[in-house]
Design goal:
This protein is of the alpha/beta class. It is built from 9 helices and 7 strands, in the order βαβαβαβαβαβαααβα.
Length: 255
Amino acid sequence: MKNRWSLKGKKALVTGATKGIGAAIVQELTALGAEVLLVARNETDIKQAIETYQNQGFSVTGIATDVSDRESYQRIIDHLTSTWNKLDIFVNNVGTSIRKPSANYNFSEYDHIMNTNLRSAFELSRLLYPFLKRSEQGNVVYISSVAGQTHIKTGAVYGMTKSAIIQLTRNLAAEWAADNIRVNAVAPWYIQTPLVETVLSKPEYLAEVLSRTPMKKIGEPEDVSAAVAFFCMPASAYTTGQTISVDGGFLINGF
C-alpha cells in the first residue's frame, strides 16, 4: 500500500518540459521519485533545467529538439535508447496556438499547430509504444484542453487538435490495455503560464474568463501537474481512457 502514491524508480519522458505546465509536471514527477527525460526546443533552457534538478538531487536528462519537426522523433528515440531500455511514463505536454478567426489562417499556420499539437502526440506515442510495453505498467498522459470539449476563444485549429487528443486517448486506451499501458488526458482551462500572459493581461477579458469560472480564479501549473501525477501512479491502476478537466468548474457553465 505504501507505494500506491509514489513514482520511485519510474522512468518518464515529458515534452515541453522547461516552462509553464511542463516544468510543473517535471517538478511533480521528480519529487515523487521518478527519473525524467526532458524534451524542449531551447537548448539553453534544457541545460539550465537539468543543472537545477541535478543540484537538487534529482535524476534528470534532456534533449533539445522541436517536436513540430518530424525529424525530431528519431532523435528522441535514439536518446531514449541510449539512456533507458523501457519507459514507464510519457507525458505529451507540448502545444501551441495562434489566435485568429478561422477564415484568416494560412496553410503554414495550420500545419504548425497541427504538427506541434497533434502529429507529435500520435507519432511519439507510436514510436514510444515498445518502450512503454516493456515497462509492463506503462502510462501515457496527454495534455488536452477544455478547448477540445467546448468553444473558447483560442481559435478553431487549436480546439480541433485538443479534441482529437481526447479521442486519441480513448482509442489508445482500448488498443493498448492488453499491453498494460494506460492512456489518460488532462484538460486545463486557463492556467497561469507565460503562454496566456498576453490575453489575461487584458482586464476585460480576464473579467470575462473569471465570470464563467465558478471558482473565480485562474489555475496554477501545479493544479495540472497533480492530476498528471495521479494518472501515473499505481493508485490509479484501474483508470484508463479518461479525461480530467482541471478548470475551476468552467465546463459547468461554458463560455
